[in-house]
């Protein structure tokens, strides 16, 4: 009988989830003012950082899957879009594709959550219900708020990459987006407490 994979320690989980992003940030900061010639083509620091980020993220997801036996829908979708847009960025030597990637990710998730609400199916509850026990009304409110947040983040990403410098966008992606998500869930602590349940009813 196969062994059930052990849950990851908090430190290892954080390292696997945010490590690739930190690697991207460090690679960009080191290479942002440099040009690298590979295969007869010149690449700027942003493209080089993308070359580093894509395989590191793939390796991180592989390790996550080997250690836990599963990947979330968001992790799989993110990996597919990173490989797709990262590949286009390197292949066409055009950083705009990689910068658009968060827009597509957040827009897709906003659309999925919005469609679920329209169909009266709370997919967020189905995915996270065991991790965060909460009454159905609470999940409906959280889903509405999260859909709006994802939509707002998609718009914010478009504004930042189209109007600001590469460094500003990298800082926004590396630090701004995770901080916004953290603040969002902290701001909803009262909702979790009010609608929380141990599922023993």
TrEMBL record:
Q: What is this entry's stated membrane topology?
A: Multi-pass membrane protein
**Annotated family:** Belongs to the YciB family.
Checking HAMAP family in the record gives: YciB
Protein name according to UniProt: Inner membrane-spanning protein YciB
What InterPro entries does the entry give? YciB (IPR006008)
Primary gene name? yciB
Whether Chaperone counts among this entry's keywords is: no
- Listed GO cellular component terms? plasma membrane
Q: Name one Pfam family in it.
A: IspA
Where is this protein localized, as stated in its record?
Cell inner membrane
Q: What does this protein do, in the record's words?
A: Plays a role in cell envelope biogenesis, maintenance of cell envelope integrity and membrane homeostasis.
Q: What's in the keyword line of the UniProt record?
A: Cell inner membrane, Cell membrane, Membrane, Transmembrane, Transmembrane helix
Q: Which regions span the lipid bilayer?
A: 12-31, 43-65, 71-92, 104-123, 143-161, 168-187
Transmembrane helix as UniProt keyword: yes
Identify the PANTHER family for this entry.
INNER MEMBRANE-SPANNING PROTEIN YCIB (PTHR36917:SF1), INTRACELLULAR SEPTATION PROTEIN A-RELATED (PTHR36917)
